C-alpha cells in the first residue's frame, strides 16, 4: 500500500509543463491500461480524458484519480470532439475506430498490452517519450525497479493454480503468470505446457494437486462461468484459501507489485 | 420386444461406463473404477466422484428424460414432429432458469432454480397443447413451436445481455445448446427428484396414450379422461424438461430422433415406446457427451451441436414425409 501511495505521488511532483512543438498538450487515452500509465506520467492538464473503465474500482487501480478526467467510451466521435493532439489506444481497441481517427488527421498511438515486468518497464519509457515526460518516466521506472527488486524472492512457495470463470488458466507468458512467478510460486499450467491464457479442464487442475488456488474476482450478477469456481471438486483438491485476482492483476502497470505483495 | 429392452439396457450400461472412463486426465480404467468404489484421498478419487460421476449420472437422467418427454408429447399430440427442444419447451425452461439465476432467486433458495425452470416449461408445453391439441395437425404445432422458441430465445438473450456480469452474455450458447461439463452432485440432487416424479406421471399416462391412438372419441369411450390425460402430460413433461434444462441447458433433437428410431420396433404402441425411448435417449445423450470429450476435448463443444447434426436432417426428412403424405 505504501508503495502504491508513493507511486501516486508521482504526477503531483509537478515538473514544468512540457514545452516545444513535439510535446502533445491534449492527450486522450482510450484503454484501461494506458489510462493508468498516462495518469502516472502526464503533466497536470496534459491528459484530457481517460476511458470510462478507468473509473471502475473493480478493474482500475486508479479509479479515484480517473474521476478527475473526462471519461470517454472509445467512440471516434466523442474522441474527435475532444480535439486531442495525441490519442493513446490499446491493441484491443476497435480497428475501425482507430482507422477513422487517423483518417480524421489525429495522431493515434496503439500500445500492446504489457504482459511481463520487462514489458511494463518498456511501456513506462514508451509512454513517457510519447508524452514528452522523460524525467517522470525515469523516476517512475526507478521506483518500480526498486519495488521489483524488493518483491523478488528466492524461496519456493509451492505450486499454485490460477483458475478463472469458465475454467480458464494462465501460463508463464501472461501478466498473471509473471505475478505468480515473482511471488515465488510454481504455476501448474507448466505441467500441461500452457504458456498463455487458455481453457484447462477441471480434471487436469485436480490431477495437478496445487498447494494454492488463485481464482478470479467475482462480478455483480450471476453467471454459470463463475459458479464453476464453487465446484466441490475444487474445494477438495486445493483446500487452502483461494486468493482472488483483482484490479491490481488486470493491467501491466507498477500496481502489480501490490498483487505480488498480497500473495505472500 | 424383450430382446430390444435387453439390448438397450446393455447399451446404456456400456455407454455409462465409457462416460465414467472418458476424460482429459487419462486415468487407467482399473484405477478409475477402484477410486470410484473405494474412494479415499488424492486427486483420482476427487476426479472420479466429484467430476465424472455426476456427469455420467446427469447424462443418463437428462437423456432418459428427454427421450421419455419426446415420446409422450408425440403420443399425445399424435405428431412425430413434437419434441421439447424444437417446439420451445426447453427454451421456455431455460428462460425460467435464467430469470431465477439473474434475479438472485436461485441463490436465496436452491429449489428456486428447478421450480422456475419447470414453470417455464409448463407454460411452454401448456401453450402448445392448448394451441395444437391431440388432433395431429402439423402446421399449428410447428408454427406455435417456432413462435414459442423464438420468444424464449429472445427473452433468454435479453435477460443475459442486461446482466451486469461480464460473463453472463457468453452463456447464451449454453442455454441454447446445452452441456454437461463440470456439473456437480448438487446439480444432480436438484434435478433428479422432480424428474423422477415427472417420469412416474408420464408412465402412468401410457394406457391413455394407447387409447388415444384410436381417436379422441374412442379414447373417451374407453374411459380415458381427456382433461386428466392432458394434465398428466403437461405436468410430467414440465417436471422432466424444466429441471433437466436448468442443470444441462436446452438440448434439442434427442426426443425426436429416439422415438422415431424405436417406434416400429415396439409396434407403435405409445405405452411400450415410453420406456424404450427413455433408454434410447439415455444412450444417445451419453454417446454424444462422450463424443464432445473426444472430438474437441479442450473446447467444451456443446452437446446440442452434436444432437442437432444428427437430428436436424431427420427432422427435415419427417417434415418431407408428413408433407407428401398429405396430412397437414
Automatic annotation (TrEMBL), chain B:
It is found in: Cell membrane. Gene3D superfamilies: ABC transporter involved in vitamin B12 uptake, BtuC. Pfam families: FecCD (PF01032). The chain crosses the membrane at residues 56-73, 85-105, 111-132, 139-160, 188-209, 229-262, 274-295, 301-320. It comes from the Bacteria. InterPro entries: ABC_BtuC-like (IPR037294), ABC_transptr_permease_BtuC (IPR000522). The keyword Zinc-finger does not apply. The keyword Glycoprotein does not apply. It is a multi-pass membrane protein. Keywords: Cell membrane, Membrane, Transmembrane, Transmembrane helix, Transport. Belongs to the binding-protein-dependent transport system permease family. FecCD subfamily. This is Iron ABC transporter permease. It comes from Paracoccus spongiarum.
Amino acid at each position: 500500500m505504501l508503495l502504491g501511495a508513493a507511486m501516486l505521488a508521482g504526477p503531483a511532483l509537478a515538473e514544468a509543463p512540457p514545452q516545444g512543438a513535439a510535446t502533445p498538450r491534449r492527450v486522450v487515452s482510450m484503454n484501461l491500461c494506458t489510462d493508468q500509465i498516462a495518469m502516472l506520467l502526464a503533466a497536470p492538464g496534459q491528459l484530457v480524458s481517460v476511458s470510462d473503465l478507468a473509473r471502475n474500482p473493480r478493474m482500475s487501480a486508479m479509479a479515484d484519480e480517473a474521476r478527475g478526467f473526462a471519461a470517454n467510451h472509445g467512440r471516434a466521435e466523442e474522441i474527435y470532439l475532444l480535439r486531442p493532439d495525441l490519442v493513446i489506444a490499446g491493441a484491443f481497441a476497435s480497428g475501425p475506430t482507430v482507422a477513422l481517427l487517423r483518417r480524421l488527421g489525429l495522431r493515434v498511438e496503439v500500445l500492446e498490452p504489457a504482459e511481463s515486468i520487462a514489458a511494463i518497464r518498456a511501456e513506462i519509457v514508451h509512454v513517457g517519450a510519447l508524452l514528452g515526460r522523460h524525467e517522470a518516466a525515469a523516476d517512475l521506472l526507478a521506483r518500480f525497479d526498486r519495488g521489483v527488486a524488493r518483491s523478488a524472492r528466492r524461496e519456493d512457495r509451492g505450486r499454485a493454480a490460477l483458475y478463472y470463470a469458465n475454467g480458464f488458466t494462465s501460463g508463464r507468458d501472461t501478466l498473471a503468470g509473471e505475478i505468480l512467478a515473482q511471488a515465488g510460486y510454481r504455476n501448474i499450467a507448466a505441467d500441461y505446457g500452457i504458456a498463455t491464457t487458455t481453457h484447462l479442464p477441471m480434471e487436469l487442475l485436480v490431477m495437478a494437486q496445487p498447494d494454492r488456488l488463485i481464482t478470479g474476482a467475482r462480478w455483480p450478477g450471476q453467471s454459470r462461468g463463475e459458479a464453476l469456481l464453487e465446484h466441490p471438486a475444487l474445494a477438495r483438491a486445493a483446500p487452502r484459501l483461494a486468493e482472488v485476482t483483482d484490479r491490481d492483476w488486470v493491467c501491466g502497470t507498477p500496481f502489480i507489485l501490490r498483487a505480488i505483495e498480497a500473495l505472500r | 420386444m424383450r430382446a430390444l429392452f435387453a439390448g438397450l439396457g446393455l447399451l446404456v450400461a456400456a455407454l455409462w461406463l465409457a462416460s465414467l472412463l472418458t476424460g482429459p486426465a487419462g486415468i487407467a480404467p482399473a484405477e478409475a473404477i477402484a477410486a470410484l468404489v473405494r474412494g479415499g484421498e488424492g486427486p483420482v478419487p476427487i476426479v472420479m466422484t466429484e467430476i465424472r460421476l455426476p456427469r455420467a449420472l446427469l447424462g443418463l437422467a437428462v437423456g432418459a428424460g428427454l427421450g421419455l418427454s419426446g415420446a409422450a408429447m408425440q403420443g399425445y399430440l399424435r405428431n412425430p414432429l413434437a419434441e421439447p427442444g424444437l417446439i420451445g419447451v426447453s427454451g421456455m425452461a431455460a428462460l425460467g432458469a435464467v430469470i431465477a439465476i439473474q434475479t438472485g432467486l436461485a441463490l436465496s433458495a436452491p429449489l428456486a432454480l428447478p421450480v422456475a425452470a419447470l414453470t417455464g416449461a409448463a407454460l411452454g408445453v401448456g401453450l402448445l397443447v392448448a394451441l395444437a391439441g391431440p388432433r395431429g395437425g402439423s402446421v399449428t404445432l410447428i408454427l406455435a413451436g417456432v413462435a414459442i422458441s423464438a420468444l424464449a430465445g429472445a427473452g433468454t438473450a435479453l435477460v443475459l445481455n442486461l446482466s451486469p456480469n461480464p460473463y453472463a452474455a457468453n452463456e447464451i450458447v449454453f442455454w441454447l445448446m446445452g452441456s454437461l461439463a463440470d456439473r456437480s452432485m448438487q446439480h444432480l440432487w436438484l434435478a433428479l427428484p422432480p424428474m423422477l416424479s415427472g417420469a412416474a406421471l408420464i408412465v402412468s399416462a401410457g394406457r391413455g396414450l394407447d387409447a388415444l391412438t384410436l381417436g379422441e372419441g374412442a379414447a373417451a369411450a374407453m374411459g380415458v379422461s381427456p382433461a386428466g390425460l392432458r394434465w398428466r402430460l403437461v405436468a410430467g413433461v414440465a417436471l422432466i424438461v424444466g429441471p433437466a434444462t436448468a442443470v444441462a441447458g436446452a438440448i434439442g433433437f434427442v426426443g425426436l430422433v429416439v422415438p422415431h428410431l424405436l417406434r416400429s420396433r415396439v409396434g407403435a404402441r405409445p405405452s411400450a415406446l415410453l420406456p424404450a425411448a427413455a433408454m434410447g435417449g439415455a444412450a444417445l445423450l451419453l454417446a454424444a457427451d462422450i463424443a464432445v470429450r473426444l472430438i474437441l476435448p479442450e473446447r467444451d463443444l456443446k452437446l446440442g451441436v452434436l444432437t442437432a447434426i444428427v437430428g436436424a436432417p431427420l427432422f427435415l426428412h419427417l417434415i418431407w414425409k408428413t408433407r407428401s403424405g398429405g396430412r397437414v
